[in-house]
Write a structure and sequence with these properties.
The chain has about 120 residues and is mostly helical. Helix content is about 45%, strand content about 5%. The protein is built from 5 helices and 2 strands. It has a two-stranded antiparallel ribbon with strand order 1-2. A hairpin with a 2-residue loop joins β1 and β2. The longest helix has 18 residues. It is elongated and about 65 Å long.
């Protein structure tokens, strides 16, 4: 878009984008996807603490920080699910009873303001 607006598409470094500039809608879509990709993959911080996006990253952060805070948080959440008998664990390959739906467990990581 910048090259098209500033009439740069005939220059050597910009020639590769000439065909994309003709398809403006596709170019906008590609630019938005690139922004989203960088947004999804960059580290997230909240209240000065890096927040993991998955279990593996949580364990890496624990190892890097020399503690097990994320591991303890996961264990606490799973213990509360068991304590309240929210779900019944039938195993990874277990048969789901009729009238029920299989729900996979996943963690959503976040940081509270009080740490």
């Amino acid at each position: 878009m910048y090259a098209d607006k500033n009439n740069l598409l005939h220059l050597d470094g910009w020639k590769q984008f000439a065909c994309l500039a003709r398809r403006r809608k596709k170019l906008l879509c590609m630019a938005n996807q690139a922004k989203l990709q960088s947004f999804r993959t960059r580290p997230k911080f909240k209240f000065g603490v890096q927040v993991p996006c998955n279990h593996a990253e949580a364990m890496e952060l624990d190892a890097a920080n020399g503690n097990n805070n994320w591991c303890k948080a996961e264990e606490t959440e799973l213990a509360q699910i068991d304590e309240y008998a929210t779900f019944e664990d039938i195993g990874k390959h277990g048969q789901v009873p009729k009238g029920f739906k299989k729900i996979r467990v996943h963690m959503v990581y976040d940081m509270k303001h009080d740490g």
